[in-house]
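Support request from a user on the community tier.

User writes: "When I paste my structure tokens into the form, the page sometimes reloads and wipes my input. The last time it worked, I copied everything first. Here is what I submitted, just in case something in the input itself triggers the reload:"
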């Protein structure tokens, strides 16, 4: 946890600075525009995520170094479905999937900052050195950009009830990711073992079943915590904005 390489210390803050500056600039430029216009940057990110994942599958298809780890069964692979559903399929569909996209992208952002190696490996040390590094870096920071842009452009309004959405999403993911992980013997989202030492010690002590239960329970609790905190922050922001408008 919190072990950053020298390249992480340079590349990650710089990338976050560029993303944040772009988000603030877009907020300023699009603040008077209608909502469907403000959504365009998020739609572009969604298309980038889908395109790079399709490219990945095509690139590795039939190659000698193909492994089942390439399959889109990772937790982050959810975004290639969640982002388009949140941005291209109308208000009713978005109301279901936008909470998941926002909360999970926040979760990815937190995890990248907490333990870059677990999510993006050593990609920052040589981003253009291989297709794997390019895909890993661009994919994950596109997810982070979606989270930051979503806040800046006011695309999502958090509610406490959205804890149900994010919980159901994790349950659905676990329903197919766990059996696939054991079948292919691939460590999708740390299902087989953990990069986090305390969790790995717990797995060795308690056994695989209890480890998986704790792993996904922690995921649900973490997602719900993000949902609750973001809802409280949003409510506070709305109250402050309304009070300011009344005073003016």
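"...and here is what came back when it finally went through:"
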């Amino acid at each position: 946890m919190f072990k950053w390489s020298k390249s992480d210390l340079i590349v990650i803050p710089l990338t976050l600075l560029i993303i944040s500056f772009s988000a603030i600039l877009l907020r300023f430029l699009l603040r008077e525009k209608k909502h469907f216009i403000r959504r365009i940057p998020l739609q572009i990110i969604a298309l980038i995520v889908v395109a790079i994942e399709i490219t990945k599958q095509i690139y590795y298809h039939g190659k000698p170094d193909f492994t089942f780890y390439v399959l889109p069964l990772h937790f982050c692979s959810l975004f290639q479905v969640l982002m388009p559903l949140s941005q291209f399929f109308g208000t009713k569909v978005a109301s279901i999937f936008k909470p998941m996209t926002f909360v999970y992208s926040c979760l990815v952002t937190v995890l990248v900052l907490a333990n870059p190696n677990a999510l993006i490996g050593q990609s920052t040390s040589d981003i253009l050195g291989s297709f794997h590094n390019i895909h890993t870096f661009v994919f994950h920071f596109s997810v982070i950009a979606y989270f930051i842009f979503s806040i800046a452009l006011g695309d999502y309004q958090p509610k406490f009830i959205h804890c149900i959405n994010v919980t159901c999403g994790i349950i659905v993911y676990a329903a197919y990711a766990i059996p696939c992980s054991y079948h292919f013997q691939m460590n999708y989202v740390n299902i087989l073992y953990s990069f986090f030492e305390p969790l790995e010690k717990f797995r060795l002590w308690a056994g695989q079943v209890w480890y998986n239960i704790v792993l996904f329970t922690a995921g649900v609790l973490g997602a719900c915590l993000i949902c609750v905190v973001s809802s409280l922050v949003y409510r506070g922001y709305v109250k402050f904005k309304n009070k300011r408008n009344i005073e003016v």
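Agent notes: The reload is a front-end session timeout and is unrelated to the input. The CA atoms of residues 13 and 150 lie 19 Å apart. The mean pLDDT is 91. Escalated to web team.
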